[in-house]
Amino acid sequence: MATPNPSPRRARGRPRGWDDKTDQNTIKSLDRAMEVLDYVSQHQGKALSELATEMDQSPATLYRVLVTLETRGLVEFDPEEQAWHIGPQAFIIGARFLRRTTLVERARPIMRRLMEVTGETANLGVETSGQVLFVSQVETHASIRAFFPPGTLSQMHASGIGKALLAEMDDARLTRLLNNQPLTAFTEHSITDADALRAELALTRSRGYAIDGEEKNIGMRCIAAPVFDFNNEPVAGISVSGPTSRVGTGDIDRLSAAVMQAATDLTTAIGGVTRHDPGT
């Protein structure tokens, strides 16, 4: 007697309807809580009334969500300021994500060496939702230094790492990003014209490194280069940043060579494929 063919085995941990993301397979209250957590993480130090107004939510409903998140340590309330902040458990969860990736782990010794060679703060960032997310940093020992703690977000057009990654994007993706992200003027040096930015990105790609010349913060300069994965796709940027008094225009050649070497070393360390040589 022939036995019937067994039904296809589902992947472990994936129930039926895994690919169905409709409302029936989502928990609305949990989704709302995640939205609140994300908003508080980006707009810390605000009162309940401010958050409710900005998120267009009922203060009573929002308060219940915040208290629930507070019991888990994901947010915390400052009674003196009467304001809500991201909580320590959010950092712990984020740190677990970083431990999952080899990028940050492999980058640490390379960033430490880059800091020692240049004397300036070394940074590692990735692109997320059209912004640069700083995921690691090795600070210089100098008293005046740049500081981008892990978790900091920055607009890409005004960031050395951001421009290094933008320069490697295909034109269709770059166009979508520029259409969706305003080119905010942070300083008088910020690039706010799309054509001017495209010209800057072409120069960045040709020479192999990007420069943030006081475009986000007056008195600070950053030099960055892209890191590639095994598909030759840009997955991160590595940079050095410091005050213009130490990172002057006359220091760019020396510092950019060190940054590009660090980017190449990290690309190799994660099994990536380095892009063509600058200028080719």
TrEMBL record:
Residues 1-24 are annotated as: Disordered. The keyword Transcription regulation applies. GO terms for biological process: negative regulation of DNA-templated transcription. Keywords: DNA-binding, Transcription, Transcription regulation. Residues 27-88 form the HTH iclR-type domain. GO terms for molecular function: DNA binding; DNA-binding transcription factor activity. InterPro entries: GAF-like_dom_sf, HTH_MetabolicPath_Reg, TransRegBhcR, Tscrpt_reg_IclR_C, Tscrpt_reg_IclR_N, WH-like_DNA-bd_sf, WH_DNA-bd_sf. Pfam families: HTH_IclR (PF09339), IclR_C (PF01614). Gene3D superfamilies: 3.30.450.40, Winged helix-like DNA-binding domain superfamily/Winged helix DNA-binding domain. Residues 89-272 form the IclR-ED domain. PANTHER family: HELIX-TURN-HELIX TRANSCRIPTIONAL REGULATOR, ICLR FAMILY, HTH-TYPE TRANSCRIPTIONAL REPRESSOR ALLR. This is IclR family transcriptional regulator. It comes from Roseovarius atlanticus. The lineage of its organism: Bacteria, Pseudomonadati, Pseudomonadota, Alphaproteobacteria, Rhodobacterales.
